[in-house]
């Protein structure tokens, strides 16, 4: 603008035809810039209103906690279709994993500030029950009954020793949620396996001893760290069971009504 104006007022003040054309061109450009600025301002106002409306819409916070969450699962969670009993299993397992992982991270940040990351705790971490490759929970050797039995046994151990975590100054609501959620999942698996009372297999292990402050910290970390690993493995296994059951059910519905008689 300054160079154009200097050209417009150059010399002794006399305006030639060329100078007049330049001035008109500059004026036209200024008007177009002003219109563009108004348009930009209008769009920014509209965008701000839109963002405020979007922020006001409630969202479900737990849908993307695990990468295995599928579109069908999201629809089920939102209530667009009824949940089957087995879908409730793996959604409960997913919530348990999320809550245990949060407690694990809280305790680590509080008690192990000098540690760079959790890998540094491998040497002091005690052994607690985990799901093993031989438990039938992997796709290559999957066994629904064997896998559910092992999940039941391992989850029972963590629930029995959860009192150690209850004594910690962690988020009380999460501690209670894990206790109640694990109870619901155990009851569901118990019904599925039709285990008679008093005949449940148990993991034989000595009571966890806490002799010092350091031992107490490492014990709590070990329970939460390994429990988190158990729940992500359990979630994947229960998700696989649910999908496999749904696939079989869908295959059966596609068969013609006289399929059985034709086969015979």
Automatic annotation (TrEMBL):
GO terms for biological process: acute-phase response; cell differentiation. The keyword ATP-binding does not apply. Keywords: Acute phase. The keyword Coiled coil does not apply. It comes from the Eukaryota. GO terms for cellular component: extracellular space. Gene3D superfamilies: 1.20.1250.10. GO terms for molecular function: interleukin-6 receptor binding. Cytokine with a wide variety of biological functions in immunity, tissue regeneration, and metabolism. Binds to IL6R, then the complex associates to the signaling subunit IL6ST/gp130 to trigger the intracellular IL6-signaling pathway. The interaction with the membrane-bound IL6R and IL6ST stimulates 'classic signaling', whereas the binding of IL6 and soluble IL6R to IL6ST stimulates 'trans-signaling'. Alternatively, 'cluster signaling' occurs when membrane-bound IL6:IL6R complexes on transmitter cells activate IL6ST receptors on neighboring receiver cells. Belongs to the IL-6 superfamily. This is Interleukin-6. The lineage of its organism: Eukaryota, Metazoa, Chordata, Craniata, Vertebrata. The gene is LOC113069455.
């Amino acid at each position: 603008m300054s160079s154009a104006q200097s050209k417009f007022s150059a010399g002794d003040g006399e305006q030639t035809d060329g100078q007049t054309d330049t001035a008109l061109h500059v004026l036209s450009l200024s008007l177009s810039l002003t219109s563009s600025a108004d348009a930009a301002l209008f769009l920014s106002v509209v965008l701000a209103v839109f963002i405020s409306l979007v922020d006001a819409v409630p969202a479900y916070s737990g849908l993307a906690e695990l990468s295995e969450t599928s579109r069908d699962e999201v629809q089920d969670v939102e209530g667009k279709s009824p949940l089957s009993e087995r879908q409730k299993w793996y959604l409960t397992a997913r919530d348990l994993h999320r809550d245990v992982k949060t407690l694990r991270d809280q305790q680590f940040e509080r008690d192990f500030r000098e540690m760079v990351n959790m890998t540094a705790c491998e040497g002091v971490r005690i052994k607690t029950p985990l799901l093993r490759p031989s438990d039938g929970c992997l796709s290559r050797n999957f066994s629904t009954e064997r896998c559910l039995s092992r999940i039941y046994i391992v989850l029972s151990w963590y629930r029995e020793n959860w009192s150690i975590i209850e004594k910690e100054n962690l988020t009380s609501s999460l501690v209670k949620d894990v206790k109640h959620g694990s109870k619901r999942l155990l009851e569901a698996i118990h019904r599925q396996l039709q285990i008679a009372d008093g005949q449940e297999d148990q993991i034989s292990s000595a009571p966890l001893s806490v002799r010092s402050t350091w031992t107490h910290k490492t014990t709590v970390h070990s329970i939460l760290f390994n429990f988190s690993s158990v729940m992500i493995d359990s979630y994947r296994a229960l998700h696989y069971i649910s999908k496999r059951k749904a696939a079989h059910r869908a295959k059966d519905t596609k068969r013609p009504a006289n399929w059985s008689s034709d086969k015979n």
